[in-house]
Each structure stands twice: as C-alpha cells, then as structure tokens.
Amino acid sequence: MDFLAGCIGGAAGVLVGHPFDTVKVRLQVQSVEKPLYRGTFHCFQSIVRQESMLGLYKGIGSPMMGLTFINAIVFGVQGHTLRRLGQDTPAHQFLAGAAAGAIQCVICCPMELAKTRMQMQGTGEKKSKRKLYKNSLDCLLRIYNREGMRGINRGMVTTFIRETPGFGVYFLAYDVLTRSLGCEPDDPYLIPKLLFAGGMSGIASWLSTYPVDVIKSRLQADGVGGVNQYSGIGDCVRQSMQREGWRVFTRGLTSTLLRAFPVNAATFATVTLFLLYMREDEAGKDCEPAPRSLQQQPQASSL
C-alpha cells in the first residue's frame, strides 16, 4: 500500500514542480563569466520567451518515469523501516527517512543525470538546431555507450550525501508538524494542514542539503559539449568557491523553494489521504473501527 501511495504522490509532485526545477538547474550551472539569467524570474521569463512554455518541461520524461518508482521506494522503505524499528518516534522517523533516501539513490542519480542533460539541451533556442539527445532514455544510452556505468552514475556520491540526511529531515519535519497541528482523520481542516505540513517539510529538507545539490548539478552537467571542467567533487567545490565565493551554494535557491512547497504539499497530502482512505476501507471490510488518530499509525509522519 505504501508503494502504491508513493507512486500516486510522485506523479502529482512532478507535474506541479518541473518548470521551477528547470529554472533551478539553469541557474545552478550557468557560467559566472557570461551569465544568461539575472535571477529566478528573469530565467523563467527568458525560457518562455526564447523556448516557449515547452522549454520549462524539458527533461520531464525522466522524472515522470523515475519519480514514480522513487516515491514508491521512499514511502515503502520508510514505512517498512519504521515498522521494523517498532516505535514511532521523531528519531525513528529520521532514521527511516534516511534509510529510504539512501536506497533510492540507485534510481535517483541516473534519473537526475538524464533530466539535467535534457534541461541544458537547446538553451535559448525555440527549436534546437542540433539535439544531442532525443529523449531521456536516449540520453542515458548515449552516456552509457561513451562512459559505461561510471558515466551513468555520475554524481552518485553527491546524490547520496544529499538524499540520506535530506529525507531524514523530510520525514522528521512532516512528523513533527502533523503532530503539532493535531491532524485527525475527522478534522474539517485536515487537507489544509496536510498541505502546509508537506510543503514546509519539503522546504526544510532542501535547506538542509542545498549546497550539495548545487555541486551535484554542476558535476552532472559537466561534459555537455564535450568539455569536462571538473575532475571530482573537491575540484568542483574549489573552482566554484574561487570564482563565485560562498554565494555559489545559494544559486537557484529561490526557484527551489518556490517549487518545494507545492510539490511536497501535493505529494504528502496525496499519500496521506490515500493511505487513510485505504485503511478506512480495510477497516470497514474487517468490521473494525477506522483509526481515530493519525498519530496512532506506524507509518510515515504518523499517517
């Protein structure tokens, strides 16, 4: 049930947030010597003007395929781990979320590599004169043919460093917020509360690991056009700091936070409501009373 709920929540999140993700990546990897965009809204306007609205949805095929499975893994592993830990506490929420974040890196890293490469393709062109990649799958196949599995897993270490604590904070924040707000199945304000808790959890998660995401995006975009600029994580951090200072680690943060709230609000609310509906349905079939409190369920965020 957790896996199915994750699939549904993931699809909802992708459709809501992908345009801002494209803006985020463009800002993170643009050249400081010759910047194309002055900021979040200028980047958004430039993409629409130069590449049409479809430019905001470049690379959406990869997350539409991958995030469905990623969210299924995340919510499934998190729920299973929480049950194995036995007691639903904030510390266990963090540990279960961290475990889920670590495991899903296997899918997340190649998916984000393809997404980043597709989002960078044809920058500033309404119709790309020369497309390197036809779609996300073609992108991964071409990278594999040139660089093998090492190329497919470019950015895996930074993805792991970002996702493990990031998902721990994600589920911990949601658990704390839903408890504090007193989310109950019969609460008339349940949906607004879930949306708020989910959105704020996403913001907390991104703030906790955002500098690592900047380095990950730069490493995964490196090599587009045939030129490799960085030899590894340390070299990327060193070069970025030398050229741009500490502010480099906040590039694209505004668009990320604008995206984080609606995406995670939609994801968590969808997952929570789906699980509540399914459990009430099962309880009715078994002639047992439905759960009276979200906090009594041994699932993510006390669902």
UniProtKB/TrEMBL annotation:
A GO BP entry: mitochondrial L-ornithine transmembrane transport
A Pfam family annotated for this UniProt entry: Mito_carr
PROSITE patterns membership: SOLCAR
Record-stated family: Belongs to the mitochondrial carrier (TC 2.A.29) family.
Residue ranges of Solcar repeats: 1-84, 88-180, 192-277
Sorted UniProt keywords: Amino-acid transport, Membrane, Mitochondrion, Mitochondrion inner membrane, Repeat, Transmembrane, Transmembrane helix, Transport
Catalytic activity: L-histidine(out) = L-histidine(in); L-histidine(out) + L-arginine(in) = L-histidine(in) + L-arginine(out); L-ornithine(in) = L-ornithine(out); L-homoarginine(in) + L-arginine(out) = L-homoarginine(out) + L-arginine(in)
The keyword Transmembrane helix belongs to this UniProt entry's keyword annotation: yes
Chief location bin: mitochondrion
Membrane topology: Multi-pass membrane protein
GO cellular component, one term: mitochondrial inner membrane
Gene Ontology molecular function terms on file: high-affinity L-arginine transmembrane transporter activity
InterPro entries with a match to the protein in the record: MCP, MCP_dom_sf, MCP_transmembrane, Mitochondrial_Carrier
UniProt name for this protein: Mitochondrial basic amino acids transporter
Gene3D superfamilies: Mitochondrial carrier domain
Location within or outside the cell: Mitochondrion inner membrane
